[in-house]
Amino acid sequence: MSAPVLPDYTALALDIKRWARELGFAQAGISGVALEPDERHLQRWLEDGYHGDMEYMARHGTKRSRPDELEPGTQRVISVRMDYMPPGTQHAWEVIGDTDAGYVARYALGRDYHKLMRNRLQKLAERIRGAIGDFGYRAYVDSAPVLEKALARNAGLGWVGKHTVLINRHAGSYFFLGELYTNLPLPVDEAASAHCGTCRKCIDICPTQAIVAPYRLDARRCISYLTIELKGSIPHDLRAPMGNRIFGCDDCQLICPWNKFAQDATEPDFAPRHSLDGAKLVELFAWSEEQFLQRTEGMAIRRTGYEGWLRNIAVALGNAPSSEEVRTALQAHADHPSAIVREHVAWALARHG
């Protein structure tokens, strides 16, 4: 009886990258599973307490940095990236400079990427199965403890910048990442080299000085953490620096010289919904909970919850120029059932005398 014919893994790797592009991914790469230096970096970060209330970052032990522990049998990780900046979006700096508008991180303006990318990864796995038969795999898009940036770097998709965001020299940093863990012994790509040089623009521009050193982010000070992950009160000393940023923050990416090469999204679902690329704070603050849930259905903004949404906008209104319209909007929520909302509204009203 003849032995089974093994796949040509070199040819298969090329096919996988081509199929990934056909499925809408901008790029795909393949890495091994060794992440020892990144595991040490993560452990130091956790020991410093930089993860704040994100206890899930420490919950899974070494599964985050050892793919074969998370998914036994994993030999390779196929990393993919997908550009998310929608064409025609109102310019970010213009919105940040408009103190009457609310700034939403550009990745969150349209459809939530998690399910979309996971479905595409599943289709990629099905194409691989169609070519070689059954194989072991698991698709992840922020759905499990995965060191996605380290894996993507090792797969050649970019390097981790001083702001801890992945940068691609041909496409900047406005892209999502996803992974396909697999037991296939595919040839690995060359890891990307770093090209930040002496630049520290991202460190200097951070409104809350959350980048405490190159490659060291104190999430407790990061506006993305404060507006999305944090469920309690925003520290008083960080409220004014938040400006009008109500969901996430892009400053460290907006200032990055490499983003002159950023590519527009090709996925129509990432286009802004409800004019959130520059909507007025007073209008957003007037949304009822029902309107919030209806208008953010299928969007990443849902993650902050209605209470967090009002909290964040109250801070932004506190930072806006004083006007009767702003004071009236704040007073409408002065007796809100949520103590968190009432506290931040009171702070904002005090700012307006």
TrEMBL record:
Principal location listed in the UniProt entry: cytoplasm
Functional pathway: tRNA modification; tRNA-queuosine biosynthesis
Annotated catalysed reactions: epoxyqueuosine(34) in tRNA + AH2 = queuosine(34) in tRNA + A + H2O
Top-rank EC class of the record's enzyme: oxidoreductase
Keyword check for Cytoplasm: yes
Domain 4Fe-4S ferredoxin-type: 184-216
Active-site residues (renumbered): 142
Superkingdom of the source species: Bacteria
Cofactor: cob(II)alamin; [4Fe-4S] cluster
Binding-site positions, [4Fe-4S] cluster 2: 206, 222, 249, 252
Keywords: 4Fe-4S, Cobalamin, Cobalt, Cytoplasm, Iron, Iron-sulfur, Metal-binding, Oxidoreductase, Queuosine biosynthesis, tRNA processing
Cofactor binding summary note: Binds 2 [4Fe-4S] clusters per monomer.
GO molecular function, one term: cobalamin binding
GO terms under biological process: tRNA queuosine(34) biosynthetic process
InterPro entries for this protein: 4Fe4S_Fe-S-bd (IPR017896), 4Fe4S_Fe_S_CS (IPR017900), QueG (IPR004453), QueG_DUF1730 (IPR013542)
A GO cellular component annotation in the UniProt record: cytoplasm
Stated role: Catalyzes the conversion of epoxyqueuosine (oQ) to queuosine (Q), which is a hypermodified base found in the wobble positions of tRNA(Asp), tRNA(Asn), tRNA(His) and tRNA(Tyr).
Record-linked PANTHER family: EPOXYQUEUOSINE REDUCTASE
Assembly and binders: Monomer.
Name of the molecule in the record: Epoxyqueuosine reductase
Taxonomic source organism: Dyella monticola
